[in-house]
Specification:
About 45% of the residues lie in helices and about 10% in strands. The chain contains 7 helices and 5 strands, in the order H-H-E-H-E-H-E-H-E-H-E-H. The chain has a 5-stranded parallel sheet with strand order 3-2-1-4-5, sandwiched between helices. Helix 4 links the parallel strand 2 and strand 3. Helix 1 packs across helix 6 and helix 1 crosses helix 7. The chain is globular and about 45 Å long. The two termini are about 15 Å apart. Bound molecules: magnesium ion.
């Protein structure tokens, strides 16, 4: 799967600036681009890895996004659907996608497309991992924003990110 989509992943890696964070992206500008549905990864994107609740600076961003898109059009797509996380987003009226194969399988994104009846080009995924979220987006043909400055990572996840960037760059040399 990674091999088949290597060019698309390399393109995502190369065209993304190094300091992309979710709270710096204006919900209104996404809407202007024609985006109608948001799919948000949790770990790294909304909070540091393993945290239960989103980082506080994202509260404002979430509220703004709800105003622009409506809570029904925002979904959390995490490979770790912890119950406390699910309950937290329920209080916002935001659904947490569960019972699907984990990213990089495109099942979660396809579920969002089915639930909303939207065109896949009107959905955007925000994810800090190339080989899980970004790959899933390539497979599902969904636009993706690669979050290149995730919230405080443990050494383990930093190494993982370093490793996958290496793999993607290596594919670039092999072309
Ligand atoms: Mg993540």
């Amino acid at each position: 799967m990674t091999y088949k989509y290597r060019a698309a992943l390399l393109d995502i890696y190369r065209r993304t600036q190094p300091n992309v964070q979710l709270h710096k992206i204006s919900p209104a500008s996404l809407k202007q681009q024609g985006i109608e549905i948001l799919a948000l990864d949790f770990d790294g994107v909304l909070a540091a890895h393993g945290e239960t609740y989103p980082n506080q600076e994202l509260d404002n961003w979430l509220n703004q996004s709800i105003k622009v898109f409506g809570a029904k059009n925002i979904f959390i797509l995490s490979n770790k659907p912890m119950q406390k996380r699910i309950d937290y987003f329920k209080s916002y009226g935001i659904d947490f996608i569960t019972q699907v194969k984990k990213k990089p399988y495109p099942d979660g994104l396809n579920k969002i497309i089915a639930l909303t009846g939207t065109n896949n080009q009107k959905l955007m995924l925000f994810d800090d991992r190339l080989l899980t979220g970004c790959l899933a987006a390539c497979i599902a043909k969904v636009p993706v924003t690669y979050i290149t400055k995730p919230y405080k990572l443990t050494l383990f996840f930093n190494s993982l990110r370093f490793l996958e960037r290496g793999i993607i760059q290596l594919y670039g040399f092999m072309k």
